[in-house]
Design goal:
Elements (H helix, E strand, L loop, with lengths): L3 H4 L6 H8 L9 H8 L16 E2 L5 E2 L8 H14 L4 E5 L5 H16 L2 H15 L1 E13 L6 E10 L7 E6 L5 E12 L2 E9 L3 E9 L2 E4 L3 E2 L5 E2 L2 E2 L7 E5 L8 H22 L4 E5 L2 E7 L4 E5 L4 E5 L6 H17 L7 H5 L6 H7 L1 H32 L4 H4 L3 E5 L8 H11 L8 H8 L5 H30 L1
Antiparallel strand pairs: 1-2, 3-19, 4-5, 4-14, 6-7, 7-8, 8-9, 9-10, 9-13, 11-12, 15-18, 16-17
Helix pairs in contact: 4-6, 7-8, 14-15
Length: about 475
């Protein structure tokens, strides 16, 4: 394996540099293959012209065969991502120990996360991770004076997510023989002046390189960076001391391999049933004997005369749908069982009734175990992300530099399970000896309807004081009357 310095040697042709950087060190599952299952319009039944034959009549009209692709893989991945990220990822801070400066640092870190809309970002990259097998988040500083983080800063931190789910976006992590990430590269397409231009970027611990493809065969430098003295330099310096990117990947698809065949079976059975219903939808009129004269139409009924011993009847279709429904139900259950996902459709959930929270947890046991297993690589990525943010914060506020590394951030994922808040409050109060578990101000804040919780609390207290004063005055007045 070439050393990174040899790969990035500027005297080499750019095409050779990029070719070496494209030798990625990880082997995620192939999104190009899996996308055929993920997007329903790519399913076999959608373009099947051999197994599903359209019927062309002599007059040129066409009875199109039913082709009903079902986005089951997409549904399952959405479920998995929702269970993992519908509740915001929790962050706990250790090493603060009542230190005022460290508490300010924690506040700044939380404001950075909030300013980057991290909960929305987690949903976005969670979907990309489970669907396409890999995801990259790049953090960068934008020059803009602000006081958003609890101190005056010249910069604001932002992040951007890249994944193969975007058209023509590819990720190329490069690791050394010890498995440490030494370069993080990615290629993407951007529309520039009515033309598609491909860009290739590479981040190392001390440099950021960027090239663009002038035509399909040649890569050129996109930006020449100046060194402050009018001289161009190769690459943009990164003073962070580490790669400002977080990469995570999966070896196997989030949806089990058997899902696609079971889904194919449901699609073809459902389409076959639809064809049968369509064919037998129009009623058939059975006539015995001859029809005499024309049909007479009354206001509420139709009258037709037939010959002796004749008759007219509608022939009804007694469709045998029970076997189809049973097969569909069993196949669907297999799909959800294999993927350790509950079927949380409306029909299923309404049949549960008002069961307790503990019963819900038991029902979701299989899903909880899967989320625990699937969340480990993402939690590792979130931990690395916290370290990147701390590294940025050291440069943005040098007065905190000696204290930032003394703080440790622990991330945890709280699986989404519908909760009964009243039952949860009762349980916490029992554990607390029957005492309140939140202040009146916290209760107003959690209710969320007041624009100014503190002002609402002050108004409540004043009303209580006025009511108490009126009660006391009334009692005093009655006492004076008796005297």
């Amino acid at each position: 394996m070439k050393k990174l310095s040899e790969i990035l040697d500027r005297t080499r042709p750019v095409g050779e540099i990029i070719s070496d950087l494209e030798q990625k060190s990880t082997k995620p599952f192939s999104w190009k293959k899996f996308r055929l299952a993920y997007y329903a319009e790519n399913h076999r039944i959608a373009g099947d012209e051999w197994g599903k034959i359209d019927h062309i009549h002599e007059d040129g009209t066409i009875d199109f065969a039913a082709r009903l692709p079902l986005p089951i893989e997409q549904l399952l991945i959405n479920h998995l991502n929702d269970f993992m990220h519908a509740n915001p990822v929790k962050r706990e801070y250790y090493g603060v120990d009542g230190n005022e400066t460290r508490q300010q640092i924690v506040t700044a870190i939380e404001r950075i996360y909030e300013g980057a809309d991290i909960d929305i970002v987690n949903m976005e990259r969670g979907l990309a991770y489970f669907a396409s097998g890999e995801v990259l988040t790049i953090w960068y500083a934008v020059k803009k004076e602000n006081d958003d983080y609890g101190f005056h800063s010249q910069y604001k931190l932002k992040c951007k997510v890249y994944s193969p789910m975007e058209d023509d976006c590819e990720l190329y992590p490069l690791m050394d023989e010890n498995g440490d990430l030494i370069a993080l590269s990615f290629k993407y397409k951007k529309r520039v002046k009515d033309a598609d231009v491909y860009y290739f970027e590479c981040y190392t611990a001390d440099k950021h390189y960027k090239w663009h493809q002038g035509d399909v065969s040649q890569w050129t430098d996109d930006i020449f960076y100046t060194d402050g003295e009018g001289n161009t330099t190769y690459g943009d310096d990164i003073i962070l001391g580490k790669i400002p990117g977080i990469y995570a990947y999966k070896k196997d698809p989030s949806v089990a391999y058997g899902t696609s065949e079971l889904r194919n079976d449901i699609e073809y059975k459902t389409a076959g049933e639809a064809d049968t219903v369509a064919y037998n939808f129009a009623p058939i009129l059975e006539v015995k004997g001859g029809i005499k004269g024309d049909e007479k139409k009354g206001e509420t009924r139709r009258v037709m005369k037939v010959s002796e011993n004749g008759g007219i009847n509608y022939v009804s279709w007694n469709g045998s749908t029970d076997a189809v429904k049973n097969h569909y139900s069993i196949t669907k259950e297999l799909i959800f069982m294999i993927n350790q996902m509950p079927d949380i459709s409306f029909d299923n959930m309404k049949s549960l009734g008002n069961i307790g929270y503990d019963a819900r947890v038991m029902m979701f046991t299989d899903t909880i175990l899967r989320v625990k297993r699937e969340s480990k690589p993402l939690l590792q990525a979130y931990r690395r992300e916290g370290n990147v943010i701390k590294a940025f914060l050291k440069l943005m506020n040098v007065d905190w530099a000696s204290e930032i590394d003394k703080i440790w951030i622990k991330h945890s994922i709280d699986i989404y399970i519908p909760k009964d808040e009243s039952a949860e409050i009762d349980k916490r109060m029992k554990a607390n000896g029957g005492k309140p578990i939140e202040s009146q101000l916290e209760s107003i804040q959690r209710y969320g309807r007041s624009k100014d919780p503190q002002a609402t609390l002050d108004a409540i207290r004043k009303e209580q004081e006025d009511s108490l004063g009126n009660t006391i005055n009334s009692l005093l007045s009655k006492s004076q009357e008796k005297e």
